[in-house]
Each structure stands twice: as structure tokens, then as C-alpha cells.
Amino acid sequence: MNSKKLNLKIAFTLFLAIFLVALAVTVNTGMAQKNAEEVITAEVAGDAEGTTGEAVEEESVPYVEDEYRNFFGIDGRLVVWIISQLHLMFAAFVLAVPLFVVIIEAIGARTNQIKFDNLAREFTKLLSTAFATTAALGGLLAFALYGLYPGFMRYMTGVFHPYMFVYALCFFGEVFFLYAYYYSWDLLKTGTGKWVHIFLGVMLNLFGTALMMLANSWATFMMAPAGIDMKTGAVLDRTAAFCNFLWMPVNIHRIIANVAFGGFVVGAYAAVKFMGAKTEEDKAHYDWMGYIGNFIGLAAFIPLPFAGYYLGREIYSASPVMGNIMMGGAFSWTFIVQAILIGMLFVGGNYYLWNGMGRIKGAERYTPYIKYINIVIFFCFAVWLTPHNLPLSGEERALIGEQYHPFSKFFGVMAAKNAVVNLLILATFFSFLLYRRANKGETMPFKSHGNGARITMIITVGLTVMYLLWYSAGLKGQDLNETIKPFINPLLTCIKIQIGALIAALILTFANRGKLAQTLLFVVTVSISVIYFWYYGFVVMEKANMILRFLSVTQVSIVISTLIVNTVIDVFLFKNAKEVGGIQWGKIPHRAQYALLLLCVAIVTLMGLMGFIRSGLRMNWHIYGFMQDKSAGAFTPSIAYMGWVVSLIVFLFLALVAVVFWLATLGDKTKKHA
Amino acid sequence: MSKKKNSYSMMMVIVSVLIVFAIIKVIAPYVFMILLAKDHTMPTPSTLLLWYMILAILACLVYVSTSDLKWANFLSFILPAGDDKLKLLFQKMIVISIPLLVGWFVYSGTVPGTASPVELRIQHPTLLQEFEKLENPFAHADEATKRKCIEEGKHLYQQNCRPCHGSKADGNGPFANAFRLRPINFTDPGTIATVVENFAFWRIKEGGPGLPAVSTPWDSAMPAWKDVLTDTQIWKIIMGEYVTAGVQARQREEMEH
After folding, report:
1. Is the ipTM of this complex over 0.85?
2. Which of A177, A220, A301, B253 would staple A246 via disulfide (CB 3.0–4.6 Å)?
3. Domain check: are A111 and A227 in the same one?
4. Where do transmembrane segments lie in this chain (chain B) (predicted)?
5. How far apart are CA A383 and CA A361, in angstroms?
6. What's the pTM?
7. What is the pLDDT of residues A410-452, one digit of tens each?
8. A402 in B contact zone (CB under 8 Å)
9. How many residue contacts between A and B have a Cβ separation below 8 Å?
């Protein structure tokens, strides 16, 4: 007991120390800017005095609205940065949790398993307290923006004011459906009432998503303005300003990222509860909850790089210069930090699954594969974080004798990164398949699952094949220069091979050779999307740069088709299969729980970092190419300064979340004691 | 009662890490020398070596802690060896090597040296605003005019750029060896093929002296050509340079939505 208290004290002291140091560094910088501003103001005032004399002080000076203000001496940009990021993190949690809560509740209602319903309810309990914090931070953000950036906000309000009323309406909708959903749980728990309750949850999601999309439009307008005269700022087309070029890519990326974020945060909540649980029952419950959190987090995290790539590509399309700043310029080193965090998420997610296999009887048949998956994942991690430009000493530069070391030349460019991220995703998916089948023994023949299984398989393969055919038709129809058009042909051939593999996998599954079908798909996809496209990426980079963007999408399409078809095969392959032994929930080492905590910290940091990058890409523009940021804080922060601020945000968020979760569970303790 | 077999997983981890170290530090420089037909080895940069070794150690620790049994086996190596002489030998080696390693780190970290500091470098310095919206004046010209410009550009390139960047734009001009950091090889798809033409225009016009502070300390020896060449000549050089190098500039995409 004493040692527990001591640990808590040490943890709190460490937290306080880091918090204070981060605060000191960030506030210092803010104050320095304020001082600089004051010096400039004083100089200007001095000049003015020289011309007009002291009489000016006596006269009533007409009101002139400031363009910029600071927050009690702290730079406005720093204040807005911290508040907006905290608001975004809470909003991500509040928007993501209902997405999977409704799915979990629906699974519970469909399968009549009360544990799913209880889990959904426990997640929702966290939601209701987090929602109030999100709203409070949102209000604070609005005050900060209008108070510190009045000139800029005046213009934004002028462009978007009709949508701001829609935003308020959606907010009311979300509040209504959230509390209706939460408080009607007991009232609508059986029969048709349950499905009415689920409907309330769906409505909550619709309003939440609409809110997010409305706010996204304002942020993306600042990056890729549309519908305005770029010289005068006159609003020409409000709808175009709202549906700007980067709006949909950011919407898609944020929805998926929010789900990953929500999953890992509730996973960490479960880990903390697991480690503090006193009874076997509680341990089993929170172990299961942690598993679900990790599953949701990983399931959303797997398609996230694809959505990220799409967003990145669209940023290049909106402005190649902004794209260059992002990947090869001032922000390139932040992407190395991003690579480390993404690598940590993949390693942490897999590590949790591997440790979880220890509580499944029968998993020992698959544990020998772990070492190979581990090697693949760390190899990919190494390539993923290798920068194109290495930090080198003068001596090293002289010894290498050229701009790029071969490691950075072959690992540091997109052709390599795309290949390894696809391999990382496939390896993690493979890990999950092993985990899924760990306690499964003898399988049932495919035909025993009836016509429903056959139809599902045919539809799944049919849809993926149709998508690939549709994409290859689009590739063929590209209006490209005759010299580079032939470079499309290998992509078309690879798509044809993949379609062949998908059809072969379907036939093999029907012939009760599901495992062989899955192996075939894995082998074909790795050969094409990882090995061949890694090589071909260099060929097109050299000879037909334009093709690289089609190559990446082809690569992603092939990998996704394999993930989808292999999942469906797996579902039927192990449907009604004999169990070797049950899962002993609660029998998982604490190491795995620390992995869940690491995943939470990594995703929160990643969100903080990416928020900085997305916003910082505008450099010294409020609205890129139209309205310049002329405030003292309009500099691009150094990586060290960014690191301190993002760390401070992460600490603040985790501390706030801990308080919010503690408040959410206060009622339970009272009930238990009663 | 059968005797419990000792686990050597800790030794396996140490050996694995040493093998990775040997591959990166010793073997890779020779492999790259042969593969890239160089006349000298390509030593692995210290930063990269450090990163890769951290990952190798982390990978080993992750693997040995994926189950309670593996973790217990890993840690059991520090328990008394009993009759196992081989284990005893390895334990002694570990005990001796730890202070030696610490000593080596302390020595190499404190011994006075003249090594230059490791420097970060940004691949593409931020393009200045006045260059961002520029467009090649010949971008929409007819094919005959473009061909003429390319030929003129090639000629101008050979006159002005060849001494450093080479006649084939491969960074092997007659002066190239005089630079400690060789001129850029434009045929490398990771160089001018990754930027828009405006970027190349800015670099030629302003050269090393025009680089923003963030791009230093990797000072470029590229001269500023703004006082020697006209803007039109620079655009023509860019057109000729890309063709000579056999690569294409990054293209702007059509915004479809």
C-alpha cells in the first residue's frame, strides 16, 4: 500500500516537473514575442510623437480595432494553438466513441450478449463527462480566436456566417441525442425499444459527424481557399468556399483517425482499471475491454496511412509548394517524429496481441510465427523512419562523397516508404489473424455454412474485383503524355494478376481450402505491392514522375482488396470451428497493459504533432495565398519549441482525461459502497 | 528428476544485436561499394547506425517479452550457472564486457577530437512567396517553340552548368571533385524530379547566397545567377536541364473537386 502511494507521489512529482518546465519554455517564448511587439509599438509610438507632439494624448482618440492582441502577455498564437489542440483531442474522443459504441450495442442486441451492452454503456458513461469538457474548450477557443485575432475572425465570419448557425443547430442536435441516448438506456433496453435506442445513437453520430465536417471546412479553407477573389477577398461562391479542395480529404482522415484515437484512449482506460482491479471478475472485464479498445484502435489505424496518403497527395495538388514544404522542407523532420510514433503504434499494437496470445489455450501453435513478424515489423520501422537527408558530420559527408548515402537513397523516398507501410499493415493484419484463430481447432467445411456464406463470398470478391476493374479503366483513360503513358501498363498487369488471385481464392475457399486461399492472396499481394512496386517506384520516379501517384493508389487498392477478402474468408473458415481451449480473460501480464498505455500516449502525441503540421503548413498565412499573418507569432516554430508545446498539450490532455474519467466513475464507487 | 535446461536467450539477443551491428557497420559499406560500383566504401552514418541499433535492441526486447515464459527465460541467464560451464563463461564475459563498454563510451565521449558537428539538413528549403506563383513562360507554347527553347536551354546548360553538374547532368562535371559536397546529380530521381520548376528557377537565380537561414549550415556552393542570366535564359536552362537529366519536374494536378 505504502509503495503504491510512493509510486503515485513520484509519478505526480515527475508530471508536475515536466509540466512546469514545458510551461516555462512556452510562456518564455510567448513573453519574448510580446516584448518584441512592445518594442516595435514603442518605436512606432515614438515616431508618432515626434510628428504630432504631446497634444495627441489630450485628445479623444477614435476607436481603432486591433488586428491582433495577446493573452495577458502571452502570444496569442500559442494560446490558440494549445486550446484548439485540446479541443480537437476531446472532440476526437467524443466523436469517435459513439461510432463504435453503437456498433458494440448493436452486436449485443443481435447476439443477445449482455456483456456487449454493458461495455457500450461503460464507454458512453465516459462520453457524457468528456462532452461537457469538449464544449467548454470549444467555447474557450471561440473566445480566444475572436479576442486575439479579431481582424482575421471578422473575415472568416463574413465568409462562413450562414454555416456558423448550422453549426449551432447541429450542436443542439448532438446535445439532445447524446443525453437522450445516455439517459434512456434503462428505459429502452428490451425488444423494439433497444433498436429505438440504437437509432438514437445513430442520430448522435450523424449530428457529431456533421459538426466535425462543418468545422473542418473552416480549417481547410485556410489551407486551400476557394470561392473568393484572391486579390480583394470578395466572396464569390460561399458553397465553393465551404466545399473547398481539402475539405473531403480532411473529413475522411479525421473520421478514421478519431476512431483510432478513441479506441486507444479507452484501451488505456481499461489498462488502468485492469491494473487496479481487485477481483478476478473485474480483471476479466477490463482485460476484455482493453482488448476491444486495442482492436478498435488497430482496425482504424490500419486504413489510416491510406487516408493520410490521400490527404498528402491532395495537399500537393492544391499547392505543390505546400507539399514540398511538408515532405521535403521545413516540416520534413517532423515527419521523422511522425514515423517514430507510427512505428511505436504498430509495434505496441502487435506486442499487445502477442502477449494476449498467452491467455489463449492453443495459441502455442502460432507463437513461432511471432519472431518472423517481429523481424518484418522492425525492418519496416527502420525503413519507414530513414530520412532522405541524413544528419551528417563534415567527415561523413566527405567519406560518402555525394549528397545521399545509399540507405537514405533507397529507403528515404516515397517508393520505399509506401512499400514498407503496406508491409507493416499486412504483417499486423497477419498477427491479428493468428490471434483470432489461436483457440480454434478443427474447422467446418465451407459448404456447411450454407448459401448465405457462398453469396457473401461472391459479393465480397465481386465488389473488390469491380472496384479494381473500375480503377484500371480510370488508369487507361488518363490523359497522359505519350512518352509516359506506357509506364501505366505494369500497373494494369498487376491489377489483372490481383484479380486472378482473388478469383482463385474464391474457388479455393469453395473447395474447402480457405487457408491456402489466404496464403495465396498474401503471397501475391506482398510480391506485387511490396517487392515489385518498391522497385518499380524507383523506375517511375526516374522516368515518369507523374505515374508515382497512380502507383501508390494501385498499391493501396491491391492491399485493401486482400485485407477485405482475407477477413471474409477467415470469418467463414473458423465459423463454428471447435475450440481448443477458451480465452482466460484477466490472465494477461501487466506488460501488455503498459503497451496499451504506450499506445494511448503515442496516438495523443501523434495527433498533437499532426495538428501542428496541418496548421503550420500555411507558414505565415492565415488564409494561404490571400490573407497574411502579420502578428509577431507568425513564425514557423523550431522542432524543439514544437516539441515542448506538443508535450505540454499531451500532458494537459492526459491529465484532463484522467480527471474526467475519475469523475465519470465516482458514481460507481458510491453505488459499491452503498 | 530431470535436470532443468538453462536458457541462452539473453546470449542469443546479444549475438543478434552484434550481428545487426556487423551488417550495418562493416558489411553494408562494402556491399554498397560493389553494388554501386564505387571506388571507395560507403560508411554508414553514425546517426543512422545509432537509430538502427536502438531498433535492433528494441526488437529483441519486444520478442523476449512476448510471453511470461520467454521473459523468465531471458532473465534467468543472470541466475547462478550451477554446473553449466558454458553459461558461467558467458556470464563472466558479460560481467567483464559491461565495464569495458562503459569505459569505451566514456573515453570516446570525452577524448578531445576535431570532428565537425553532425548537421541536420532540409531537403527543400521553403520557397519564397515571390517565386511560388511564377510560371514558366513557355509552359503553354506550341511544340516547335518548346523544342527550340529546350535546345537553347541545353546549350546554355552546357555553357554555364556543365563544369560542376556535368554534361549528362549527373553531377560529374570537371570541377565536381573540387567540392567537398559534390554538385547534385540531377539524374537521381530524388532530386529535381521531386520539385516544381519554380523551385529550380529560385535555386538557379538566387543560388547558395539566397538560401534562407533554416537551410544552412549545409551551405551550398551554387552561385547566384541572377546577375549573369536573364529570367528567360533561366527558364530555358531548366527546360534543357530536365531533358538532359532524363527526368520530369513535379507536375501540378488538375483539381477535380
Report:
1. no
2. A220
3. yes
4. 12-37, 49-67, 88-107
5. 35
6. 0.85
7. 888 888 998 999 999 999 999 999 998 888 888 888 888 888 8
8. yes
9. 197
| Res. B216: pLDDT tops 70 | no
Q: Which triple of cell numbers denotes residue A204?
A: 448522435
- Stretch(es) of chain B classified as CATH 1.10.760.10: 129-245
| DSSP at A628 | E
Residue ending a domain, among A244, A267, A289, is A244
Are residues A234 and A90 part of one domain? yes
Look at residue A50 and tell me whether its pLDDT is greater than 50: no
Whether residue A367 and residue B67 make contact (CB cut-off 8 A), yes or no, is yes
Mutate to test the interface with B, among A388, A393, A478 (most CBs of B within 10 A): A393
Residue A235 lies in a domain: yes
Same domain, A113 and A238: yes
Residue A449, min C-alpha distance to chain B (Å)? 35
Cβ of residue B147 closer than 8 Å to a chain A Cβ: no
Q: Is residue A439 part of a domain?
A: no
Query: Does pLDDT of A203 surpass 90?
Result: yes
The whole-angstrom distance between B50's CA and the closest CA on chain A is 11
List, for residues A480-530, the tens digit of each pLDDT value.
Answer: 777 788 899 999 999 999 999 999 999 999 999 999 999 999 999 999 999
B48/A386 CB distance under 8 A? yes
User: Which of B38, B124, B187 best probes binding to A when mutated, by most A CB atoms within 10 angstroms?
Assistant: B124
Domain final residue, candidates A191, A216, A244:
A244
CA distance A298 to A264: 8
CA-nearest residue to A377 within chain B is: B59
B7's CB contacts (< 8 A; 6+ apart) are B73, B74, B76, B77
Cell of A121: 454503456
- Taking an 8 Å cut-off on Cβ atoms, the answer to whether B120 and A316 are in contact is no
- Identify the sign of the CA torsion A331, A337, A340, A345: negative
Comparing A11-15, A449-453, A532-536, the range with the smallest average pLDDT is A11-15
Exposure string over A369-406, b if 16+ CB within 10 A, otherwise e:
ebeebbebbbbbbbbbbbbbbbbbbbebbebbebbbbb
Residues A15, A115: one domain? no
Of B32, B190, B246, the CB nearest to A388: B190
* Maximum Cα interatomic distance, chain B, rounded to a whole number of Å: 93
Asked if pLDDT for residue B207 goes beyond 80, the answer is yes
Residues A142, A232 share a domain: yes
Q: What is the pLDDT of residues A135-194, one digit of tens each?
A: 999 999 999 999 999 999 999 999 999 999 999 999 999 999 999 999 998 888 888 888
Residues A52 and A178 both lie in one domain: no
Answer yes or no: is A32 within a domain: yes
CA angle A348, A353, A356 (to 5 degrees): 125
* Chain A contact set for B38 (CB, 8 A): 401
Contact (CB, 8 A) for A615 and A325: no
Q: How far is A188 from chain B (nearest CA, A)?
A: 43
Distance to chain B for A52, nearest Cα, Å: 37
Question: What are residue A235's phi and psi, to 5 degrees?
Answer: -80, 115
Q: Pick A316 or B257 by higher pLDDT.
A: A316
Beta-carbon separation of A545 and B194 below 8 A: yes
Task: Give percent helix, percent strand, percent coil of chain B, each to the nearest 5.
Answer: 55, 0, 45
| Same-domain pairing of A51 and A160 | no
Do A245 and B35 lie within an 8 Å CB cutoff?
Answer: no
Asked if B251's CB is within 8 angstroms of A245's CB, the reply is no
What is the residue range of A93's domain? 75-244
Which of B62, B171, B181 is nearest residue A397 as measured by Cβ atoms? B181
**Are A10 and A146 part of one and the same domain?**
no
Using a CB-CB cut-off of 8 Å, the residues of chain A touching B115 are 393-395
Residue position matching grid coordinates 501542428: A612
Provide the domain count of chain A: 2
Instruction: Answer whether residue A441 is part of any domain.
Output: no
